[in-house]
Amino acid sequence: MTTTSATQSIAAGPTGRVVVVTGAARGIGRAIAERFVADGDRVATIYRGGDLPKGVAPYVADVTDTEAVDAAFAAIEKDLGPVEVLVANAGVTKDQLLMRMSDEDFESVVDVNLKGTFRCVRRASKGMIRARKGRIVLVGSVVGQSGGPGQVNYASSKAALVGMARSITRELGARGITANVVAPGYVETDMTAALPEDVRNGYLKSIPAARFATTDEVAHVVSFVASDAAGYVSGAVIPVDGGLGMGH
């Protein structure tokens, strides 16, 4: 896929960090990008298209395409500077019961959620290794630890992010690079808002906090994990799930 970049005013000054958030057009990714802009960082996204928050520079690429990902990072580095923070948020679902799940259902979810994350982490880490500093935040899910019916593909892809973050920590930790997983539970998004009332109520009964998270609550945790204050936090799975995943 051809990678394109567009010049867009960045709210932060030249002292802000260069932050890449994949999939920042909607939902959790959008809130995360907005949070970093508010923090004074220079924020770019690698995404497939759509409206973006003010101050986020767009770089269109498909994370399943290695050449497109590499080209997008090269363009970001040319336009903004070395990437200091990567938030790998882009993800998809194709829920289906195990016996009905096709190879394509499984492979397409893994290709975006796991392999797409790997492609972005591999490319972003090159500059971080040279700089001897960096923050890698992988957006996982409570389902990655607890599992979910009809989500063998999605749960597998999110569970694998834990092994990825911990392997990165052991490999690159001495170079000032941290890697963590932020694992949201059910979050108020357009998708969850469209759920039938009985389904929503069923989910709510399983959450000790008795409500869904807001996207801003997830974004604030990501912002902390990417901050200097979290410099000694690495290889961790940080739940933002209202207690849903306790024990996992």
Can you describe what's shown?
- The protein is an alpha/beta fold and 248 residues long.
- The chain has a single domain (4-186, 218-239), classed as 3-Layer(aba) Sandwich (Rossmann fold), CATH 3.40.50.720.
- The chain has eight helices and eight strands, in the order E-E-H-E-E-H-E-H-E-H-H-E-H-H-H-E.
- It has helices at residues 27-38, 66-79, 103-131, 143-146, 152-172, 190-193, 197-205, 215-225; strands at residues 4-5, 18-22, 42-47, 56-60, 85-88, 134-139, 177-184, 237-240.
- GO terms for molecular function: oxidoreductase activity, acting on the CH-OH group of donors, NAD or NADP as acceptor.
- Belongs to the short-chain dehydrogenases/reductases (SDR) family.
- This is 3-oxoacyl-[acyl-carrier protein] reductase.
- Residues 17-190 form the Ketoreductase domain.
In a few lines, what is going on in this structure?
The protein has a single domain, classed as Rossmann fold, CATH 3.40.50.720.
Secondary structure layout plus pairing:
Elements: E1 4-5, E2 18-22, H1 27-38, E3 42-47, E4 56-60, H2 66-79, E5 85-88, H3 103-131, E6 134-139, H4 143-146, H5 152-172, E7 177-184, H6 190-193, H7 197-205, H8 215-225, E8 237-240
Parallel strand pairs: 2-3, 2-5, 3-4, 5-6, 6-7, 7-8
Antiparallel strand pairs: 1-4
Helix pairs in contact: 1-8, 2-3, 3-5
Keywords:
248 residues; alpha/beta; Rossmann fold; 8-stranded mixed β-sheet; 8 helices
β-strand amount: 15-25%
**What is the CATH top level name?**
Alpha Beta
> What general outline do the C-alpha atoms trace?
globular
The number of distinct helices, counting runs of at least 4 residues, comes to: 8
Q: What is the CA-CA span between the terminal residues?
A: 38 Å
Q: How many separate domains make up the residues?
A: 1
Taking all Cα atoms into account, the compactness measure Rg is 17 Å
**Cross-sheet strand order for the largest sheet:** 1-4-3-2-5-6-7-8
Quick check: average pLDDT? 93
CATH architecture descriptor text: 3-Layer(aba) Sandwich
Structural class: alpha/beta
Output the CATH homologous superfamily.
NAD(P)-binding Rossmann-like Domain
Order of helices and strands: EEHEEHEHEHHEHHHE
CATH-defined topology: Rossmann fold
Number of strands: 8
| Low-pLDDT stretches | 6-14
Which sheet architecture does the biggest sheet show? Answer: 8 strands, mixed
Helix content: 40-55%
